[in-house]
Design brief:
- By secondary structure, this protein is mostly helical.
- The chain has seven helices and no strands.
- It has helices at 2-16, 25-38, 43-48, 68-98, 108-125, 127-134, 138-145.
- Helix 6 packs across helix 7 (138-145).
- The radius of gyration is 21 Å and the shape is flat.
- 9% of the residues are buried.
- Residues 20-146 form the CHD C-terminal domain.
- This is CHD3 protein.
């Protein structure tokens, strides 16, 4: 997910010519560097440190909003959680490779994964039914219920 997100963000930043104003992987790098220096969830300290000024660039247009700081801190916290999850997964993959671990296709968890993918596909293909159901379409409601 992270690599796809980075590609989309970077494409948007480059095509618009707003490399500092649109959050992308460079901002993530500086966010992680700020956390290393200032500590976990120390958003205010990171934002106030001039060395990490690039982190503030994407938010300059939002500064006039009343809940600006809360919105900015929540974004930084969510973005850090995404980066943190990616780092954890990367470490798990590194350990699995180091221990020469492989996935067993016959393991019950793999069957569960297959079923989950089927359910997700079904939900996506019937997404329009929820709108129809809310609009009062009784047949759509019945199909959605099943």
């Amino acid at each position: 997910e992270l690599h796809t997100l980075w590609q989309n963000e970077e494409r948007a930043a480059i095509s618009s010519g707003k490399l500092n104003e649109i959050w992308h992987r460079r901002h993530d790098y500086w966010l992680l560097a700020g956390i290393v220096l200032h500590g976990y969830a120390r958003w205010t300290d990171i934002q106030n440190d001039g060395a990490f000024g690039v982190i503030n660039e994407p938010f300059k247009g939002e500064a006039s909003k009343g809940n600006f700081l809360e919105m900015k801190n929540k974004f930084l916290a969510r973005r850090f959680k995404l980066l943190e999850q990616a780092l954890v997964i990367e470490e798990q993959l590194r350990r699995a490779a180091y221990l020469n671990m492989t996935q067993d296709p016959s393991h019950p968890a793999m069957a569960l994964n297959t079923r989950f993918a089927e359910v997700e596909c079904l939900a996506e293909s019937h997404q329009h039914l929820s709108k129809e159901s809310l609009a009062g379409n009784k047949p759509a409601n019945a199909v959605l219920h099943k």
